[in-house]
Design goal:
CATH architecture: Sandwich
Helix content: under 10%
CATH superfamily: Exo-inulinase, domain 1
Number of strands: 17
CATH topology: Jelly Rolls
Number of helices: 2
Largest sheet: 10 strands, antiparallel
CATH class: Mainly Beta
Shape: globular
Order of helices and strands: HEEEEEEEEEEEEEEEHEE
Oligomer: single chain
């Protein structure tokens, strides 16, 4: 009977226990959502401004970087913003490289220090009311450390939504991941694996740090309730818009790309 050496057995075990399996990087057809030149394909929705308006040039492109800037703000004034990509997606992997820079704008809430996010399974921004702060969506929360305290990254927040974990409905608004803390201004890579109404994984610097399933609308949330009514009572979320946040702390994105999955 043939026997396997320990290195071969170890390799086989790793192939079965890896969090996900994909083709080699060279064979993957990643599509850039940000072209490095301008905001083509992206449209802002800033609180208190109409869809498509950004009077203070919050979202801009400089030196090949997509920046969230507050240099034209005297005070934040709870003007939460989101930059929406034109195409909704359902099954995909998304990868972005970002970093926090500078100081938080005056009037920004304490919890928004080095805080941004990627919204997935989001509502159509054209349906957001003028003073709506966040789109109904699933947020992959991006957090930076203060140089001292521990602060997990790639967390989950759920404006107008809920998710299931271990087959149980979770109504807690924000759920921490098990990631390490990312201090300083270094670039951080976060990836999101989305399988429609199924599994969603948050991946920070190559490590799966959070996983959940079955995202649904919260029918008790006023903004989500309108979507539920329009959908004939269906609360399941299997896809939607993608957007990047502006929450009062400057942040930069140098790569935003997507890999559609079957």
């Amino acid at each position: 009977m043939n026997t396997f050496s320990l290195p071969i057995i170890s390799a086989l075990l790793l192939s079965f226990t890896a969090p996900f399996s994909h083709a080699d990087e060279a064979e993957e057809n990643w599509i850039p959502l940000f072209n490095g030149k301008d905001l083509s394909g992206w449209t802002p929705k800033i609180r208190y401004e109409a869809y498509g308006e950004d009077s203070r040039n919050t979202f801009r492109v400089e030196d090949g970087i997509l920046k969230v800037s507050y240099e034209n703000y005297e005070e934040f004034g709870e003007s939460f913003g989101h930059l929406f990509f034109e195409t909704p997606y359902s099954n995909y992997r998304m990868r972005l490289e970002y970093r926090f820079t500078g100081d938080q704008v005056k009037g920004g809430p304490g919890w928004a220090f080095r805080n941004s996010g990627v919204m997935i399974h989001g509502q159509d921004p054209a349906t957001m009311v003028l003073d709506q702060d966040f789109p109904v969506s699933i947020e992959v929360q991006l957090l930076g450390g203060d140089g001292e305290a521990e602060r997990t990254n790639a967390n989950l927040c759920t404006p107008g939504t809920h998710v299931f974990m271990d087959d149980e409905l979770v109504k807690k608004h924000c759920i921490k991941s098990n990631s390490k803390t990312f201090h300083g201004d270094d670039w951080v890579t976060v990836e999101i694996e989305v399988q429609g109404h199924g599994i969603i994984r948050h991946i920070a610097e190559g490590d799966v740090v959070l996983e959940y399933t079955k995202s649904v609308l919260d029918a008790e949330d006023p903004n989500a309730a309108k979507i539920v009514e329009k959908a004939g009572g269906n609360i399941e979320l299997s896809g939607g818009t993608i957007s990047l946040q502006s929450e009062s702390h400057p942040v930069e994105f140098r790569k935003v790309e997507i890999l559609p999955l079957d």
